[in-house]
Amino acid sequence: MEGRKEPEVSRRRPLAAGVLTLVLLGAMLALVSASSGSTAKPQAAAQKPSAIISTGKGFGEVYAAKASTLKHTLFKAKLIPKEKIARNIALAGLGRADRKVNEALALKCWKNNGCDTGTKGKLTVAYIEQFGENVYRQMSKMEFILQALTYPQVGKIVYSSAHLDFNKAFADWKAAIAQGVDVIVTYPDFADAMIPVMKEATDAGIPVATYAWGYVTDPGKNYLTVVGEDTCVTGKTYAYVMNNRVKSGKIAFLGGFAGNPLSEGWQKCEGPALRSSIDVVAKEPTDWNPSKVQQVVAGILAKHPDIKGWSYEYGLGMAQGAYAAYRAAGKPFDTVLTLRTDDVGMGCLFNQLKNPKLEMYYTSSFNSHIRVALTAGMMKLKGAKIPPKIVFPIELQNQRVRDSCVKGYPQEASATSLIPLSLLKKMYP
Amino acid sequence: MKWSRFSGALPLVLMTLLIVAVGTFATVRQDAFLTSFNLNNLLLLAMPLALVSLGQTCALLVGGFDVSVAALMTFCVVVASYTMTYETSGWALLPGGLVLVAVGLGTGIFNAVLIRVLKLPSIIATLGTLSILEGASLLLRDHPEGPISSDAVSGLTKSVSFVPIAFIAVVVLAVAGDVWLYRTRTGLATRAVGLDETSSRRLGMATGRIVFFAFVACSVMASLAGLYLAAQVQIGSPILDIGFSLESIACAVLGGAALSGGKGSFVGTLLAALFLSLFDNILPLFHQPTEYSQITIGVLILLALVLYSAPDLLARFRTSRAGVGRLRSAEGDAAG
Prior knowledge:
The complex is a heterodimer. Chain A has helices spanning 8-11, 15-30, 67-74, 84-95, 103-111, 135-148, 166-179, 195-203, 231-245, 261-273, 290-303, 315-328, 344-353, 369-381, 421-427, and strands spanning 52-58, 61-66, 114-116, 123-129, 154-161, 183-187, 208-210, 225-229, 249-255, 278-285, 309-311, 336-339, 359-362, 389-392, 397-398. By secondary structure, chain A is an alpha/beta fold. Chain A has a domain at 231-362: 3-Layer(aba) Sandwich (Rossmann fold). In chain A, strand 11, helix 12 and strand 12 (336-339) form a beta-alpha-beta unit. In chain A, helix 11 packs across helix 12 and helix 12 packs parallel to helix 13. Chain B is mainly α. Helix content of chain B is 76%, strand content 3%. In chain B, a hairpin with a 2-residue loop joins strand 2 (159-160) and strand 3 (163-164). Classes of the chains: A alpha/beta, B mainly alpha. The interface between A and B is large, with 35 and 40 residues.
């Protein structure tokens, strides 16, 4: 990863450790399988030839991905699902990120909210959003398009956003079912309220996969599968950080739309895992909207000026909204942050502030999960048995150790996305 | 003079023409449109909007607005998850449904008291109610949970061919509403109160009672719409951030209601609700973004307001021109 700061200890690594690393690297190279046949284009952050992690092939997929690609998007190549079939799907999905696609077409498709791929393929894949109006979702849309373009059998890519209008969301789903799209990927902002349409699509034979732990009840029955990290583990990891860094005092939980599965997931597990000396003084939805973050944080700060930490998902929202609220209140940004995205803007703000009392811990944004969700759907069409949950392990990063302010990346972007940098720059010039 | 006689039918004609035009276009260009599956979906999706818009028409007829209807619908969905639980079936569902109507009745009385007794402007009063209901929904369910009885869902969505039985009932209700509005004394009184409350009071009409009932009817209709929304959602979800409040006002206006009160048509409102639902239905079929739907609704409302008030404006223009003509000829006679 460009711009990454190596921990202090690694610079003093003894010679023996270096030799051991070389031996391990050699062993990994021995496992390198033959090229998957794709015209792979290296990611911006991975300039060197890379090891490939491979577990076989089947259902039209090669279960293989470059270690560098996995490391780029998950922080570590080993952070892939443990369960065998889920691991295969993850490798197949993320491995496709290295295939060459027509970037101009992808950009056009992204701007026009869908397109004909020009392959004359018979399949139509749809990304149906209930809300798509922030950078995170727009990047996910591009990841979905790029992934769909790696399948020549996909002739049409469909995208819709209901702007959080429930009736429109239902209409979008019903239209997709009526037209008989072949695969649907979604993030269920309305959570279990989307079950009727998700189930209707599933009953109509359309594989429905959610990403970013868009969990609704009964994956495998009401819909094909949910892809993401175990948000309960995220919550417990957040609690671990708060217990060790805040130790005692007040913290607050911020979330997306009220009741959305992602926020609900980590919040319900962080609370009980906190020390009794830590008091959660607020649990507020922000709609993942920086201006609402500012509003909410300003309100909480006014009531609890001694607040010591914030757990949230959206890093950029924190950089734009929470920091503005602290400034407006005339308070230094002395706080502990646990975040679920690695937006460049937040990392760069952290570096710029040079505030020793500001601590930031974050996970990958996991936009690339949407690729795995689409691949799961495509594999289902080929008759594969898909597990109801495809769970990625997580690892929280300390901004002082791993810098998320990656040089050359747009401030809005997440540097762990698998969108080529050249394309990202065109999306956010 | 003749033109103004037909001005009342203008919204109905316009909405019918728009539905036919858009429907024909969709039929020709999109195979999936005229399928029984899609038409059934279209009518089922139109149900909550149609019901809430009919209620909103009552509020507009007396010169008010109710912006709390969407929050009331969401609240009803949440309440339904307690009163019409997954285990409930058959006649046991009736009390649960009646609770929703009671919620609508209570909200309507609350709004009406704020507006008639405390003399608050309807938009402010119902804005307050909206906030209370949103909070109450989140208090009862902080995330979607509590499946709603599948018996209730299948009962409410039961269809003959592609037409939901409930939709036929709504059509009958709208026609009966217009008959009441234009063929009965109470209907006339309601329109009179909307047109000029002071004069109506002087003429001995029970203006307070009429406005009171209009807002109660609006909320009760919203609770019925909530019942249908519950049949769609099938779970107690507090996060149905939906545009029904504005869309219901849009439907009433497109259906011929005047924002100043005293004018409106329940059939027109129903047609407008059908048209907006049709629009929501076909945009995704043509892979067009929903932004177009929002722009179209806005443009149509503005056009409708101009078009529907055109006969009155024309009549006023003619009267004033005739007056000027008479003045001029009088001046000419005096000069001669």
